[in-house]
Amino acid sequence: MEQNNDGSLSQVRHVVLVLSGKGGVGKSTITTELALALRHAGKKVGILDVDLCGPSIPRMLCVGRPDVHQCDSGWVPVYTDAQKSLALMSIGFLLEDPDEAVVWRGPKKNAMIGQFVSDVAWGELDVLLVDTPPGTSDEHLSVLENLKKHRVDGAILVTTPQAVSTGDVRREITFCKKTGVRILGIVENMSGFVCPHCSECSNIFSKGGGEELAKLTGSMFLGSVPLDPLLSKSIEEGKDFTESFPDSATFRAISSICRTLLNSLETA
Amino acid sequence: MCLILSDCPGTQSEQAGKTSSCQGCPNQKNCASGATKAPDPAIAEIGAKLSTVKHKILVLSGKGGVGKSTFSAHLAHALANDGTKEVALLDVDICGPSIPRIMGLEGEQVHQSGSGWSPVYVEENLAVMSIGFLLSSPDDAVIWRGPKKNGMIKQFLRDVDWGDLDYLIVDTPPGTSDEHLSIVQYLSSTHVDGAVIITTPQEVALQDVRKEIRFCQKVKLPIIGVVENMSGFVCPSCKNTSQIFPPTSGGAERMCENLKLPLLGKVPLDPRIARSCDEGKSFLNEVPDSPAAKAYHSIVQSIQDYCSNRVTDEQSTD
Ligand SMILES: Nc1ncnc2c1ncn2[C@@H]1O[C@H](COP(=O)(O)OP(=O)(O)OP(=O)(O)O)[C@@H](O)[C@H]1O
Ligand SMILES: Nc1ncnc2c1ncn2[C@@H]1O[C@H](COP(=O)(O)OP(=O)(O)OP(=O)(O)O)[C@@H](O)[C@H]1O
Ligand code: SF4
Ligand SMILES: [Mg+2]
Ligand SMILES: [Mg+2]
Ligand SMILES: [Zn+2]
User: Fold this and answer.
1) Which of A25, A217, B204, B221 is the most buried (most CB within 10 A)?
2) For the whole model, what pTM was predicted?
């Protein structure tokens, strides 16, 4: 009905950004697992992947490189299941050759992201998760500018425990404050590795840094996800971890983060 | 409107502003006017400034968090271990500078000297420059769009008082974007030895790293070789190895075979590396006998060999 400027997002209830100042901390992994967990909780979920130089979500959800189509209201997202409960749109789908390097300067990226963000026909969604590249630059500013015309509920910040990472995420918190994005909480990823042979726990990337950062900055701590080879394997193969290992500590951590997130979205 | 993405022809090319991919680009007017075609005079100035730098090495990866900064720092430490060599480390990660912490220089500030900015010294023969030294608090965020970041990188190359150097190592942010284009462009009138590409073993990382390799080929940047980082973890208690980031598509080894690139070595996951970085110490001094330290040393040796071979190559062809 309503065909105003937030057209494609008009039936999207909540928009959540997944951010981190640091690279490789698991933004795309956490986005994927949260989407799967939200679907398990009976929600309709969408993922918008705006990482131009390294779009990871298509592989993580095993959708390959589908042809995307346009309808009257924009690009039709790709559904990962027959029930159409998980929709994905990746900027990677629009690239001509997946191995080709996208070597673009900021201005061009901004123009592309601007169109891309407001041009996907999401339909009705409970939660739209937005996976971003590392940093605080063109992509982030453009995504925010364009999503804000609609509404952004807030951001989840992902960090790994060590200081090299929490230091960068501290700057990301400033980015959120300056741009007026509410921080929904901090996730500590890759926290502690339990040896599958002897059950000894090694803190390969240290431990506790995410929780400390949350305290220091007065943000909510959403939980920690252990460093789990079964999770990286599952991500590599594009399998649904939440279905394959429902008894694991990793799954419990992810579903608890998902519950906390839903609560805070619904009470806000 | 068609949104199938294709490439920017390059702001200095004949086609700048005129190809189909320029449609809708906000820079189109500027590019089409020809204003961007003239080479930036800074390129020549940088060429002159860096003529006293013998070797220049870029550390790259399409993927985030694979250990670029960690590797750059340890390459610098290892090279500077030879007291007769002058080494500098330049961090061009403008939004996420990690080098100050990893080099133990958090809170340091740059100083203005007569001939420009003077870098911060870790040792007498090891100089470091990073935007981190220009920020006043650990909460400061650098929220800059591309053009501003490029300006900063230009200043780092042109206005820092580097002095005579044997090695200049450049740590880069993840991806193939403004910072990467800028550093390559600004160094185009100098001689760059090549790039060291860092990856981790899993396909999620390799798929981005392959793009970075294409980028190098596109801009004609030689590749010194590939380092596989975080490959395997040996449990300190039972000594069994776990593949935390599994090489499901054959890891860096298979990729290097396919793309005919040298694999310089593999560095295992070691919690003491992450700890040394957090504490700003050199892992090579902290745990010199570890397998990871040995791997680093052998990789550094290959890089040194590559650089000195290039020098002899050039002398024989010149
Ligand atoms: N908890 C975990 N246990 C094991 N492996 C993990 C975990 N979280 C992430 N990984 C793995 O770490 C790698 C990096 O994760 P991911 O790609 O999600 O990070 P990112 O923050 O999106 O990176 P980029 O900054 O490049 O976008 C992936 O191979 C992923 O499978
Ligand atoms: N072999 C290793 N074993 C254990 N930890 C490591 C290893 N290599 C790097 N690390 C740690 O992993 C984290 C990521 O490394 P680093 O910051 O060097 O990556 P990067 O590629 O520079 O990341 P970014 O893309 O954000 O610039 C750091 O905390 C570092 O200390
Ligand atoms: S108009 Fe845009 S796409 Fe075309 S050359 Fe200029 S920056 Fe590149
Ligand atoms: Mg990602
Ligand atoms: Mg780095
Ligand atoms: Zn063990």
Assistant:
1) A25
2) 0.92
